[in-house]
Every structure is written in C-alpha cells, then in structure tokens.
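step: validate -> pass
step: tokenize input -> pass
step: predict -> running
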Amino acid sequence: MPQFMLIGLCEPLSAEDQAAFDEWFIDQHIEDTTHCPNFVRGRVFKLSGPHLDIETPSRYISFYEVEADSYEEAERVLNEWQADENAWPGRMRHLETMQRLGGDIPMNIRGAGWYELLGSFDGPGRSGG
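step: predict -> pass
step: emit ->
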C-alpha cells in the first residue's frame, strides 16, 4: 500500500500561548491524530538550530505517517475521523482542552501538505526511534 507523510509547520500564536500550544498540540494533538485509521506514526520536532544560512519558516514540525491508496483517501478519512467526537476514548479530552483554551487551536499553521513516499534509506546511525 502506498505511504504518505502529512507534514505540518506550526507555531504558538504568541509567547503567551506557548503553554497552551504545548498542552494542546504537543501533549495531545499529535497522539490524538495518530489514532486515526490508516495512521502509522505521529511525531513532532522542535527546531534546535539552523542549517547553513537557510531560513527556517517554523520552530515546530509535525510528521504523520499514513498508509492509504491515495492522499485524497487519507485526507477524507482524517477529516471524517476528526469530525467524530467519539472516534477514540481520548478524543473527548482533546476537544475539551481546546474548548477550555477558548475554542480555537492555539497555533499558527505556516504550511501543511501530503507527501508520497518515493524512497527510504537507513544510515549507519539508525537507532530504531
């Protein structure tokens, strides 16, 4: 089955929103979304430093590995799953946190997209993570 990666570039709305971003996005959203059918793994990384002199558009990047026949199918399944408040037992906690924080997601999304896996290569430093 084809594999896709949904990538998101995200930031807290402001420095004052960092705790809300950490609680909602890092502590809940990544795991919550990973429970969606077809999703294999969810990860989030925080920028530690620049590479060369290249501009970095976001301090946080999320990766969701997904198996689906097409990215359109993966997107449809994700949208249907996110609309279901009872999709999995922890989903309600995630939605309640969002409501407690004001009803809107506490972040700016600087970019997002589906990427199809074309090749994968493990290097000598692979630690299994």
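step: describe -> The chain has one domain: 12-50+57-116.
step: cleanup -> pass
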